[in-house]
Design goal:
This protein has about 500 residues and is α/β, with parallel strands linked by helices. The protein has 2 domains: about 200 residues, Glutaconate Coenzyme A-transferase; about 230 residues, Glutaconate Coenzyme A-transferase. About 30% of the residues lie in helices and about 20% in strands. It contains 17 helices and 26 strands. α3 links the parallel β2 and β3.
């Protein structure tokens, strides 16, 4: 019996109120587009008829507007995990209209298989090819699609003709065995393969195929500016110095880098720094800057979970697919972010912080400790297990009214035991082998904006001489001052002392 071709509206009929649905995609790359919009339309119709309609959403990470955005605007989201970045979905979450639970990206697929996330009723997967015998060739993002296909009761395929069938072979689909039968992952360098080129499922699970011809909804990344360029240069100079000191092997080590304008600036600076050898990447997101460095020969190979590139760049890749086919490998996030592999191959991890504190704790997720920005993503997977873990951020935000370095972060995603290096446009704070007080001094001297250096030194002065220079009454004073005045500058620490003493 062959595949059954259906419309997006027919596909939506398989999704019911209260269902948990797994969606392909990692960033907008590889995310389904037509069926989620049909589900959103169904939700609106149900709401207009006075009936409830919400679904649980599990994806690889953030997706495109047609998925996260359309379902959020339809108020059709019961819960969502993991990482998200859509403005409408973020608003829904922060208004308490949808449950959101953050997750390390390396754990989502296994938690799904373990049953920790409940039953998955439907899986909706974008493919560039699907065969009658159940072979699914993914497009530009892998995410958790292999595990979705394994556990979902029903599978719907969006067969997207925008992506060529010749992508077959660019994927490395490997699902680790679950305990107690788990074995090592046979990856010893970024180009090693561990699995198959396709997802294989029982074709009886595929209830329908929806044909589309739609590009990924990847927007243009913000251009680098003077601050991000300086951050990139500081990262490159730090790694160059580590090479010269013999603390990084002369052949260099694989790079893991986040996504966005700072990541672009960092990668650009690494490419320009001739003291850094040509390198490989073992990361989540392969973005435009990686492709440019690959064309220049500076990036020899890139292993990632998604090909998150602009439409023009994707066309360039497809027009030269023979060249890139041998230089890019797309894997499930359970593999790209796997602690075992990260530690074995010795990745250098470079991620972005919302804020950091004087002890080296990092907040990646919650603005003022309360409002969810995006989520932890894979930063925790890499940070804890990296050869060197680096966090970057501009020294200030909101035109200088917020210092990204504070006495104590308002939310902890990465603690002081995992964060080794903090870099801003002003310099590098190497926190390795330093006590809490020495860390604080290093961060203030090298990373803090000049407007806040003396203010933070004053904070240290009011703290007693304990092992960790902390004032319980003043640790969040800069956050409180901002919420009261709209500016973290000009704080009077004496107002936060109890009976004139540090507490």
């Amino acid at each position: 019996m062959g595949l059954r071709f259906i419309t997006a509206d027919e596909a939506a009929s398989y999704v019911n109120n209260g269902d948990t649905v797994g969606f392909s995609g990692f960033t907008p790359a590889g995310a389904v587009k037509a069926v989620p919009q049909a589900i959103a339309n169904k939700a609106i119709a149900e709401h207009n008829a006075g009936r409830p309609f919400k679904i649980g959403m599990i994806t690889g990470a953030s997706t495109g507007d047609s998925l996260d955005g359309s379902l959020a605007r339809a108020e059709a989201v019961l819960f969502r995990t993991p990482y998200q970045s859509n403005a409408d979905l973020r608003k829904l979450i922060n208004e308490g209209k949808a449950d959101y639970f953050d997750s390390h990206l390396s754990t989502v697929a296994q938690n799904l298989r373990y049953g920790f996330l409940g039953k998955m009723h439907v899986g909706i997967i974008e493919a560039c090819d699907v065969t009658d015998d159940g072979e699914i060739v993914l497009t530009t993002g892998v995410g958790i699609s292999p595990s979705i296909c394994k556990v979902a009761e029903k599978i719907i395929i969006e067969l997207n003709h925008y992506h060529p069938k010749s992508l077959r072979g660019m994927h490395d689909i490997h699902i680790v065995a679950d305990p107690p039968n788990r074995r090592e992952i046979p990856i010893y360098k970024p180009s090693d393969r561990a699995g198959e080129t396709v997802i294989k499922v029982n074709p009886d699970k595929i209830v329908g195929v929806v044909e589309t011809n739609l590009p990924d909804e990847v927007g243009e990344f913000s251009k680098t500016d003077e601050v991000t360029e300086k951050i990139g240069e500081n990262v490159a100079e730090f790694l160059s110095s580590e090479l010269k000191k013999g603390r990084i092997p002369s052949c260099f080590l694989p790079i893991q880098s986040g996504v966005g304008n700072i990541a672009n600036a960092v990668l650009g600076a690494l490419g320009r720094n001739k003291s850094i050898p040509d390198f490989e990447m073992y990361t989540e997101v392969i973005q435009d800057s990686v492709i440019e460095l690959m064309k220049e020969g500076r990036v020899r190979f890139a292993s990632g979970c998604s090909l998150t590139v602009s439409q023009n760049k994707l066309k360039e890749i497809y027009d030269n697919l023979d060249y890139f086919h041998s230089r890019i490998l797309l894997r499930p996030q359970e593999i790209t972010n796997n602690p075992e592999v990260a530690r074995r191959i010795g990745i250098i991890s470079i991620n972005t912080a919302l804020e950091a504190d004087l002890y080296g704790n990092v907040n990646s997720t919650n603005v003022m400790g309360q409002k969810m920005m995006n989520g932890i993503g894979g930063s925790g997977d890499f940070t804890r297990n990296a050869y060197i873990s680096i966090f970057t951020c501009p020294s200030v935000a909101k035109n200088g009214k917020i210092s990204t370095i504070v006495p104590m972060v308002s939310h902890v995603d990465h603690n002081e035991h995992s964060v080794q290096v903090i870099i801003t446009e002003y310099g590098v704070a190497d926190l390795r082998a330093k006590s809490p007080r020495k860390k604080a001094e290093e961060i203030i001297s090298n990373c803090v904006h000049p407007d806040y250096r003396e203010q933070l030194r004053d904070y240290l002065r009011i703290c007693d001489t304990a092992h960790t220079p902390l004032s319980l009454s003043a640790a969040f004073a800069m956050h409180l001052h901002f919420m009261q005045t709209g500016d973290m500058r000009g704080i009077d620490w004496n107002k936060y002392l109890l009976n004139g003493k540090c507490c």
